[in-house]
Amino acid sequence: MFYIEILSLYWMDRTSDNPDDLCLHGDVVVTIGEEVFEYECANVSATALLLLKTLTESCFKKEQWGTQMLPCCGFTFFPNDALDTVDICGCPNGIDWLSIHCDGSIKLITEAQKETVIDIETYRKKVHAFVDEIEDFYEKSSPKNIPKDAFDRDGYTAFWNEWRRRRKIQKPEY
């Protein structure tokens, strides 16, 4: 099956609150089928957005979304002109898997080419629980110091616009 468990959440400086850090990190354990992946200091805010994306879109190849599903970092946000979608770019480190929609299910394919199929509603609940835990951490933190640089500010704005839009979507758009 599929499980994603947050062991701890923190900002890059390993503190529980940092108004200058826009990307939340944490220690996470992901189970896909019989494979278990543990990752320390993953960019969990990027993971959350990518998981939301998998609820309506298939990811057929590793490079499709610009970063791994469980990335080490996501230090650059590339916003679209409407500021409602963002591409996240980071380093090559992280754990990746593919997600493919098929007949009311999601097929997850790990880097070892092992496949696990999970019912879309079960998957959606697990993704939403993860996403909501990440968002709750943001909400309990001090307000963020929004970047003065227009590109960085637009990227952060687009990140949250896409997050909110995708979190509200209930049915996949196959």
Number of strands: 10
| Number of discrete domains | 1
Oligomer: single chain
Strand order of the largest sheet: 1-2-3
Strand content: 25-35%
Largest sheet: 3 strands, antiparallel
- The rough form would be described as globular
Task: Please tell me the overall pLDDT.
Answer: 93
The ordered H/E elements are EEEHEEEEEEEHH
- What is the helical fraction, as a range of percent? 25-40%
Number of alpha- plus pi-helical segments: 3
Please give the alpha-carbon distance between the first and last residues.
22 Å
Radius of gyration: 15 Å
Low-confidence stretches: none
Give the helix/strand class. Answer: alpha+beta
Keywords summarizing the entry:
174 residues, alpha+beta, 3-stranded antiparallel sheet, 10 strands, 29% helix
What does this structure look like?
- This protein has 174 residues and is an alpha+beta fold.
- It has one domain (2-168).
- It contains 3 helices and 10 strands, in the order βββαβββββββαα.
- It has helices at 44-54, 120-140, 150-168; strands at 2-10, 25-32, 35-43, 70-71, 76-79, 86-89, 94-95, 97-102, 105-110, 115-119.
- The strands form 4 sheets. The protein has a 3-stranded antiparallel β-sheet. It has a 3-stranded antiparallel β-sheet with strand order 8-9-10. It has a two-stranded antiparallel sheet with strand order 4-7.
- Strand 8 (97-102) and strand 9 (105-110) form a beta hairpin.
- It is globular, with a radius of gyration of 15 Å.
- The mean pLDDT is 93.
